[in-house]
Amino acid sequence: MKITVVVVGLLIVLAVLAAWYGQRWIRMRRGGGVSVALRWRPDAARSSWHLGLGRYEGDEFVWYRVWSLRTGPDRVFQRESMQIADRRDPSGTEAYAVPEGSTVLRCESETQEAIEIAMGPGALTGFLSWLESAPPGRRLPRAS
Questions:
Q1: How many Cβ atoms are within 10 Å of 113's Cβ, its own excluded?
Q2: Of 5, 95, 105, 117, which is least surrounded by CB within 10 A?
Q3: What confidence tens digit (pLDDT) does each residue in 62-113 have?
Q4: Which residues contact 83 (CB under 8 A, 6 or more apart)?
Q5: Average pLDDT, the chain
Q6: Would you kindly state where each structural domain of the chain is located, as residue ranges?
Q7: What fold does the segment set 32-133 form as a domain?
Q8: Contact 34, 50 (CB under 8 A)
Q9: Cα 98 to Cα 108: distance, rounded to the nearest angstrom
Q10: Is 92 helix (H, G, I), strand (E, B) or coil?
Q11: Spatial distance between the Cα atoms of 27 and 131, rounded to a whole number of angstroms
């Protein structure tokens, strides 16, 4: 009898988590966005790629991790402080961890830690356009 109660309780908890996660995913997709892989602290030995959905919200690029229980974005990047420090193709096994046909950009900021962001050709064009469409008076990000 006790085992049945525990199993039913676990099933209810799993059902609630699945429903919540499903709603989160639907809300993220409904608002539009691009598939993006992100890696923070790229110089660290055990830094790994995380798949997510990126969205432009005015002067912010917000990123939602695919496998996350957060209600809001997991990372928020400000256009005014973000600069491209390097651009490269994925190397080795990275090609399996990032969207197909991706280019990897190393982005640095005076206010946030360095990140690497990987996105496909269409998303890359949109990202670079968003960065370059900053208000007058702001210096353009360096493109290598």
A1: 11
A2: 5
A3: 998 887 777 788 899 988 888 899 999 998 888 888 888 899 999 988 888 8
A4: 107, 108, 109, 141, 142
A5: 83
A6: 1-30, 32-133
A7: PH-domain like (2.30.29)
A8: no
A9: 20
A10: coil
A11: 25
